[in-house]
TrEMBL record, chain A:
It comes from the Bacteria. It comes from Asaia krungthepensis NRIC 0535. Pfam families: DUF2849 (PF11011). InterPro entries: DUF2849. This is DUF2849 domain-containing protein.
From TrEMBL, chain B:
InterPro entries: NIR_SIR_4Fe-4S (IPR051329), NiRdtase/SiRdtase_haem-b_fer (IPR005117), Nit/Sulf_reduc_fer-like_dom_sf (IPR036136), NO2/SO3_Rdtase_4Fe4S_dom (IPR006067), NO2/SO3_Rdtase_4Fe4S_sf (IPR045854). Keywords: 4Fe-4S, Heme, Iron, Iron-sulfur, Metal-binding, Oxidoreductase. Transmembrane segments: none annotated. The keyword Ribonucleoprotein does not apply. This is Nitrite/sulfite reductase. Pfam families: NIR_SIR (PF01077), NIR_SIR_ferr (PF03460). It comes from Asaia krungthepensis NRIC 0535. Residues 58-116, 352-403 form the Nitrite/Sulfite reductase ferredoxin-like domain. Coiled coil: none annotated. Residues 125-277, 416-552 form the Nitrite/sulphite reductase 4Fe-4S domain. It comes from the Bacteria.
From TrEMBL, chain C:
It comes from the Bacteria. InterPro entries: UCP030820. It holds the Pfam family DUF934. It comes from Asaia krungthepensis NRIC 0535. This is Oxidoreductase.
Length: 105, 556, 133
């Protein structure tokens, strides 16, 4: 199930999902482990992310995550998602600052 | 029997049913974790227990059948917010409460806690008959013809785990009111029911095929006077036609309104009549003794009030203009002398519409005990009603409400904004609804200014699914996504009363940054052009939308 | 495939019947398989010589088979066996039985424990309490 994604120059991809048990948002690191913070996400090149996505999707049940998909980001010290939606997923709801995601978790 | 006022008192069979339902759900969770159920199979099952996987976590939507709950249930909701969530709950536009930070692994335990106070989350989501909504002033309003709650409870029971209608083409929402003032948006439901007394028992006027969402349509009258005995039979026939013929190939065309549109109301009525002609009435008849047995499980409050209650209220109003303003905006006449129905605004200036902290939930429960027979209602405008307050104690109630930050005098005024959770919490949304609601309510915080502006409802939806009911807002805002950025489309002139219509799109969508100013310019223009005695909708229908369009796009 | 009976089958069909689609039906046909969009009313008097009707579920979320089964029993008095085939989950067992389905076809390796459990979970339904059929 490939989705059409728009990637501009300088942008890359990270993989995300929700944890099955508690629903929390997680990001996939270079070792294939799922982390709470986008700061640990492996930055994937547009031409190579598909194999990582395939393997993450295959092992989702074993890894205890659901709904694996890719997110377009601007790489940096902490990858920043391009869309408002994914920024809210990465950093927390804008209306409850006290619920912001801890990025060094 | 020490029944709670205003809602059905559970008996052993109801409690055994809930225990079975929780055991079933625990089994489903176990099968999901073991991989016996795929996520695709598990999803509809958890949804039918109110559990969504939202943007940040699981969200649990708890049913408040016909919007009525008692103080012990409210305290339990406060406890769940405190213990399993992040200390708050969110009242929705369908009289439910949602918790946004729930864990799947804790959900069976939460459901057991709810069951302890005869509550559940059954059918608050999924492609089934959803929690039935009702007039928030049922059994209290002076204008009411018939208290619809007994029949709302019957509909709740009838629709719960219905063997034939649990895997419908799409969700199915039913609302019922007993007032000629349609306070439930009956014409915007899959089925809307207006109840009234007849010579030989209740009669039900049934609308079908209304709805908001992607294709907003006003429902059509299917039957004018269905007698009580035939109520369930008629609904079964309506659902059977829908289950058999509703579209399943396209999720956006799967609601009953699309089928009604395709067949025409005459065609749909014909199909329902054909079903009815084949049904054996003895299998479906709603017997008077069944109704009576359910009615007997509702306790009636003793509404006697002190003979000078109204005089005391008159004096209190004269003594305090702010209180007087609140009484004007936030109360409704009660049928019982000396009593009054109160809408507690959950829309403080700059606040999140419908959000209440655990402490506020607890305090509301206390107020219900002290002022309204321990009974509360949640409104589809995301507020709370205390329905039976003695007029001579209204001032005392208002003082406490002010202490806990819920004393705003803005019911049905511009600060009484209806908003969905939007992109901050919802996985479907395109744009954030809450920040705009917060900025607008802060901008128009002054209660005197709000009264001066008059009846003006703003509804905000973060996407086309329209949970914020933007189509029926006098001013509606719809969030749209433009390349990952938030824009809003404005509609004017929507309403969900007996003159129901959907709003008209004003023009191109504006960026999120410009929204609050654009709405303020529309309101300013209205204040400058309205004639004496006019409300916003009157001015709009007299002048059309041209002046407002000009104002909205002034600086663009 | 194996057959799992949801309860005492009302009138078990013989095991060796040829099952055909509605379009292939002849006067000698005793067992048919319905597609979910089929209007059972059009079977008419053909029902009288059928022993087995199979309702199909392309996916478990498609609930048309419930209405077909119920119409067969209730409107047309079909007394033979109704069987359900396709994508079904144990959580639907009691709904199927209540709507008039006798049995489901399962893969040979399907564990029937959850099916058995589902059938006993809700001894009393709200519909029955309201005095509905």
């Amino acid at each position: 199930m490939k989705r059409a994604i728009r990637i501009a120059a300088g942008e890359a991809l990270v993989l995300t999902a929700n944890r099955l048990l508690d629903g929390h948002i997680v990001w996939r690191d270079a070792e294939g482990a799922w982390n709470r913070s986008i700061a640990h996400a492996a930055i994937l090149a547009p031409d190579t992310y598909e194999s990582a996505l395939d393997s993450a999707t295959q092992s989702a049940q074993a890894d205890g995550v659901v709904g694996v998909y890719e997110v377009v980001v601007r790489p940096g010290t902490i990858a920043e998602p391009v869309s408002v939606r994914e920024r809210i997923r990465a950093f927390g709801p804008t209306v409850h600052p006290q619920f912001a995601t801890e990025l060094d978790a | 029997m020490n029944a709670p006022v205003g809602l059905y008192q559970y008996q052993t069979a109801d409690r055994e049913f809930l225990a079975s339902r929780i055991a079933e759900f625990e089994g489903q969770v176990a099968r999901r974790l073991s991989g016996d159920l795929t996520e695709d199979e598990f999803k509809p099952l958890r949804l039918m227990n109110g559990l969504y996987l939202q943007l940040h976590a699981y969200m649990l939507r708890v049913a408040i059948p016909y919007g009525v709950l008692d103080s012990r249930q409210m305290r339990k909701l406060a406890h769940i917010a405190r213990r399993y969530d992040r200390d708050y709950g969110h009242f929705t536009t369908r009289q439910n409460i949602q918790f946004n930070w729930i864990k799947l692994e804790e959900t069976p335990e939460i459901l057991r806690q709810l069951a302890d106070v005869d509550m559940h989350a059954i059918q608050t989501s999924g492609n089934c008959i959803r929690n039935v909504t009702c007039d928030q002033f049922a059994g209290a309003a002076a204008d009411e013809l018939m208290d619809p709650r007994v029949h709302a409870e019957i509909l709740r029971q009838w629709s719960t785990l219905h063997p034939e209608f649990t895997f419908l083409p799409r969700k199915f929402k039913i609302a019922i009111s007993g007032s000629p003032q349609d306070r439930v948006a009956a014409r915007f439901h899959d089925i809307g029911i207006l109840a009234r007394p007849g010579e030989n028992g209740p009669l039900f006027r049934i609308f079908v095929g209304g709805g908001l969402g992607r294709t907003p349509l006003v429902g059509h009258e299917l039957f004018d006077s269905v007698p009580e005995a035939d109520l369930l039979m008629t609904l079964e026939a309506v659902l059977r036609v829908y289950n058999a013929y509703g579209r399943r190939d396209n999720i956006y065309k799967a609601r009953i309104k699309i089928l009604v549109q395709a067949l025409g109301i005459e065609g749909y009525r014909e199909a329902v009549r054909h079903e009815l002609s084949r049904m054996d009435p003895s299998h479906y008849r709603l017997a008077p003794e069944v109704v009576a047995a359910i009615r007997a499980r509702f306790a009636a409050p003793d509404l006697t009030a002190s003979p000078d209650a109204d005089a005391v209220l008159r004096r209190d109003r004269q003594a305090n203009p702010a209180f007087d303003r609140w009484v004007r905006s936030n109360t409704l006449p009660h049928f019982a002398p000396g009593r009054i129905a109160v809408t507690v605004s959950i829309k403080p200036a700059g606040g999140i519409p419908g959000d209440a902290t655990s402490d506020q939930l607890d305090r509301l429960a206390d107020l219900a005990d002290q002022f309204s027979f321990g009974e509360l209602r949640i409104t589809h405008l995301q507020n709370v009603v205390l329905a039976h307050v003695a007029q001579d104690r209204l001032y005392a109630l208002w003082q406490v409400l002010n202490e806990i930050g819920l004393g705003d005098a803005n019911n049905e005024l511009i600060g009484d904004i209806v908003a969905c959770p939007g992109l901050d919490y919802c996985a479907l949304a395109n744009a954030r609804s809450i920040p705009i609601a917060q900025k607008l309510s802060a901008r128009f915080a002054d209660n005197a200014l709000q009264e001066e502006i008059g009846k003006l409802r703003i509804n905000i939806s973060g996407c086309i699914n329209a949970c914020g009911h933007h189509h029926v807002g006098h001013i509606g805002l719809l969030g749209v996504d433009k390349r990952g950025e938030e824009f809003f489309q404005i509609t004017l002139g929507g309403r969900d009363d007996d003159k129901s219509r959907t709003g008209d799109i004003l023009g191109a969508a504006l960026p999120e940054d410009d929204m609050v100013d654009a709405i303020a310019r529309i309101v300013d223009r209205y204040l400058s052009v309205r004639e004496r005695g006019e409300q916003f909708l009157d001015t709009l229908s007299r002048l059309g939308d041209a002046p407002f369009k000009e104002a909205a796009y002034e600086t663009v | 495939m194996k057959q799992f009976n949801l309860g005492p089958v009302r009138h078990p069909a013989p095991a060796t019947l040829d099952i055909v689609s509605v379009g292939e039906m002849t006067d000698a046909t005793r067992a048919i398989r319905l597609s979910p969009d089929f209007d059972v009313e059009t079977l008419g008097s053909a029902l009288d010589h059928l022993d087995l009707i199979i309702v199909t579920f392309p996916i478990f979320r498609d609930g048309r088979g419930f209405t077909q089964a119920r119409a067969l029993r209730e409107y047309f008095g079909f007394a033979g066996e109704i069987r359900a085939e396709g994508h079904l989950i144990p959580d639907q067992a009691q709904f199927l039985w209540t709507c008039g389905v006798d049995a489901v076809q399962l893969e040979d390796d399907t564990d029937t424990t959850p099916w058995l459990r589902a059938l006993t979970l809700f001894p009393v339904t709200y519909q029955a309490r309201l005095g509905l059929r």
